[in-house]
Amino acid sequence: MSSRRASIIQQDTEVPTQPTKNPLPENIIKTPQIPTPDSAHRHKPSRDDSSYFPPQATAGSPPTTWAAVNTVPPKPTIAAPVATPTPGEQPTRAANETLEKKPVLPATPSLENPPTNDESIEPIPHPKVATLAGLESLVSPKPSLSRSVSVISLASSIGAGTSASDKETWDRTLSRVINGIVSIKATTTRPFDTESAGDYTATGFIISKKHGLILSNRHVVNPAPITCVAVFVNYEEVPIWPVYRDPVHDFGIFRYNPNALKHHAVEEIELHPGAAHVGEEIRVVGNDAGEKLSILGSTLARLDRHAPSYGVDSYNDFNTFYMQAASGTSGGSSGSPVLNIHGHAVALNAGGSNSSQSSFYLPLHRVVRAVEKIKRGHHVSRGTLQTEFLHKSYDELRRLGMSEAQEEECRARFPAETGLLSVIRVLRGGPASPQRKGAPTEDKVVNGITQVPGLEPGDILFACNGKHITDFVGLWEIIDDAVDQEITLDILRAGKNGGSSQMLRVVPKVQDLHSITPSRFLEIGGATFHDMSYQIGRNHNCELESGVFCAASGFLLWSSWSRDFLVTAVDGKATKTLDQFIDVIRSLPDHKRIPVMTRRLGNTDEHIMMVDVDRHFFLAALFERNDVTGTWTRRELESAPVEAVVPAIVSGPSSEAEEDDDAETVALDKIKSALVNVVCRLPYSVFGNTSASNYSGVGLIVATDPMPLVVFDRTAVPTEMLDMRLTVSNKSFPGRVVHLGAFAIVTFDRSLLPADVTVPEWDSVPLKVRDEVRTIGLTNDQLLVTKDSAISSIGMNFNTKQCNPPRHRLINVENINLLEAPSCWGGVICRKPAAGSHDYKVSAFFMAVSSQNRNGEDVCWTQGCDVQRYILPIVSKLTAGGELPPVEPTTRSLAVEFADMPLSTVSTMGLSAERFKGFVRAAKKFRGNPRPLVVETHLRPLPAGVDEDTTLRIADIVLEIEGKPIYRVSELTELDLEHKETVEVVVLRGRKELRLTVPTVESWKTSGSTIVQFFGAILHSTHAAALEQVAPNATLVPLNSSGVYVGGVSYGSPALDNVRPTHWILEVDGTPVATVDDVIGLLKEKRWKEGDYVRIKQVSRKGITSVVSVRADERWWPGLCWRRNGEGLGGRALWVQERCSGAEYVEKDGIPRITAPSTPVNSAGEK
């Protein structure tokens, strides 16, 4: 097996995932993006304060560096949630790919049906390298900024077995050709076809100075939209753009403006495909992830190797020979020229084996044809039969039915050849498939030759259009020039039922290969869709035009980044092609809930999923590639139609109970009717919550009049910027957040409230330890769960930890813990009724709590929360009438987090006997253990100049607040701190009781109502959890303003690997920014042109300041702003999206409608 040598940076997801509580539905698969074929050196983020991404379990190994002096490089590493590498060969594309990814980005399931090869994916050992002596002096003319000898290395194999005269010739050749080799730095802006979004570096070389053409690999040039630059040996950088990428073979061509190169004399490298022969001494010259040139020497060992296989989800080359040599190329060398001693390119470096030193090179015969056509401005025609051939030796052909006489005839005709081409795969529905549309159903005899409908695996190709064929070049010389024409294929097919083999003829019509290679895609709801490509169809043996390929799932699977399925129908209408898909999707109102039929690649069964259309958090646009300009045109969908208001169908209350329902069942059903399931979706990673996580849970209806109110834990409803779907009594509808605090309170359209829903009866007597209780909850599939248990403890036994990235956590709230908890993630805790009674009174809300352990792993548990003390006071304010208060009302607190400590420990710290007795008496009232409160940490840095001795300090034991003894954390709710600027606090410190006057602090918000996209960085105001982790010496972190906090960074964006999540942006091009509105103002000023670099000053939680540059790209990453603006249709939260920049890149003519109407799938699915 082998690995691609280009190096890709990918961050699958923007933040680590939240703990998964409930198993996902079958049609929801949490997977990250599949990484692009390994064409760049992947960066592995650290887990320190400066990183938003904790280390992920990777499917590769550490980053591979190419040709480092006297080192053996380790395997390439994929940083961020990434797919497990498929056993097989991987291309040499040096990938530096960062997955939000998200994404990174959760590990992907292993690929099905991995290719079987004689190589296995293992680290590629490097030959030791030595400095090429005297090379610097041979480089003429010497550029003003030239690479020194230290950055040019030479494989030790150069000197071994090379004569002195040859070495001198090689020195002269290499000193000349390095002026024509470039390092390519590129960013894939969107996932597309077999590629995913991210950064990578690779290699290319100049093949035409006059036309500004650079040759590299197809997996470098990339079918996806990319932005890229070329860096010459003197570190001069020029923009480049793709002008051609072959649909099948691993080569592509960039163009640059020769006039843009000011300080470097370019050397053109000639292509000589015929100069390659076994035993030829070669050099492979490429870059080490954009850092240096490296030169590896070897000898061509094979010219007829099968094309390497890189896995079913990756780009693969086929229908060509490859060359092989033991040069040991690795990350960053994709696109390197394979040079002979004259400095001519005899092949193109493409892939390598991870289990040996073998490297694989693409022959240049078809490359030369394409280059010549491009130079003349002609279209590069490419034909296809959707058939894969493999060269097989005569001994194999004999086993396929070739006779001895036929073998002798072939050997006599071509004495140097060792075999012929044989069919190994025919894609169903293709031009050569017997099952294609319009194919004859029976064989017929024409001029004495039996003509059959199509090709079959095992057929041996003898001739095409009357010309004898022995290799791929000869066959495709005919096919590529016969697009839309019929050709004749003379084949030998083994006999059936023991019969003898016979010569047959197939007359297929050659199809345009470019027509089945997508060049456009639709982006909607964060998802990317395009027609299924020949690459994907071939990899998974899927008939083309059988569904729309999903390159990024977005709203379909709620940011799971799954990309291994087809969409075959939407809202009951077939979507076999992208045009059909667009025709259906443009007619759907925003937020509409629709059925979507999907099919996994390689499977025949279809599955249904219900999704909500998203036209409010993401722009909807069709992108189409233009190889003349090297850009993609952007046409946006018209505004979504307004959804018709349909009267809610609400069932009336049941007039009588079922005959077989006993009193216990009726009482439990009453509680069940007040329990609500919720599923939330975050479009972007904000306020420490990742968009790639699953947010679901169980809530409790706490009011129905004047509006329905449902309480949820913050693990299920983490923030405001989200879409949510509630399920109440088997009815599903949207909701919106009306309160955020220790928990979330949600409302919905009252007309949708089922009539049989009632608010539970509340228990007014506080629970005590050892009280017998019954917990009633719901599973994620609406099943009722009950569990009899007892209260084991009440207090602060489970403290949440500070998370990375910082997110809301439950603090200073008394928890109620059960001896045995039920197998669900939410419900109610009721006091167990007396014998014969079925009167359930709710004492506590049974909720989920999430945090992280010491290893940074997400953890989740359940506990109870006193309804009377924590929830009902908030409900009273919301239902008091009049205008609703803010979602996060302003409150005041002591700005510290409390923990508790055993009384036995505190008694040794100077606690008086009277205080000791007070704690014991208070604990007896609830049968608990006395545990005094201790200051655990400050929730924000202390203001400058504040004397720490006059305020609360870490490890202070709190005894009294405002003259009231504090025995339990729940007593803090009785202090009414909202109306006090200072409070008197008695603490135990240094074995002495001290009386302090402590100022109260206005609470910081945990969420926000304005979000900004800035070149792919998701910005918002500072949230409370971030301030908790600011170091005392981080004086530049904004504490007196809302600040500009980086919540996440999108894959493929200019901000990726530059603007750091969990940092604050202080300046943009020297202009201070204190709020997100300041950033919006800069975007609207249109300060930057496309390709300009924007300087950004940022600071971390530790106070580390850095300045980075981001390349302006508003074609792909326009400035966007989202603001929460009241209530929308159906009780949803109304988020308004505003474009701040980038409108000039939108085509005005919009997306044309297709003439053919979409076909209904079936009558049941039609609307």
UniProtKB/TrEMBL annotation:
<dbReference type="InterPro" id="IPR036034">
    <property type="entry name" value="PDZ_sf"/>
</dbReference>
<keyword id="KW-0053">Apoptosis</keyword>
<dbReference type="GO" id="GO:0004252">
    <property type="term" value="F:serine-type endopeptidase activity"/>
</dbReference>
<feature type="domain" description="PDZ-like">
    <location>
        <begin position="515"/>
        <end position="591"/>
    </location>
</feature>
<dbReference type="InterPro" id="IPR009003">
    <property type="entry name" value="Peptidase_S1_PA"/>
</dbReference>
<dbReference type="InterPro" id="IPR043504">
    <property type="entry name" value="Peptidase_S1_PA_chymotrypsin"/>
</dbReference>
<dbReference type="InterPro" id="IPR025926">
    <property type="entry name" value="PDZ-like_dom"/>
</dbReference>
<feature type="compositionally biased region" description="Polar residues">
    <location>
        <begin position="58"/>
        <end position="68"/>
    </location>
</feature>
<dbReference type="Pfam" id="PF12812">
    <property type="entry name" value="PDZ_1"/>
</dbReference>
<protein>
    <recommendedName>
        <fullName>Pro-apoptotic serine protease NMA111</fullName>
    </recommendedName>
</protein>
<dbReference type="GO" id="GO:0006508">
    <property type="term" value="P:proteolysis"/>
</dbReference>
<feature type="compositionally biased region" description="Polar residues">
    <location>
        <begin position="1"/>
        <end position="21"/>
    </location>
</feature>
<dbReference type="Pfam" id="PF13365">
    <property type="entry name" value="Trypsin_2"/>
</dbReference>
<comment type="similarity">
    <text>Belongs to the peptidase S1C family.</text>
</comment>
<dbReference type="GO" id="GO:0006915">
    <property type="term" value="P:apoptotic process"/>
</dbReference>
<feature type="compositionally biased region" description="Low complexity">
    <location>
        <begin position="77"/>
        <end position="87"/>
    </location>
</feature>
<dbReference type="InterPro" id="IPR001940">
    <property type="entry name" value="Peptidase_S1C"/>
</dbReference>
<feature type="region of interest" description="Disordered">
    <location>
        <begin position="1"/>
        <end position="124"/>
    </location>
</feature>
<comment type="function">
    <text>Nuclear serine protease which mediates apoptosis.</text>
</comment>
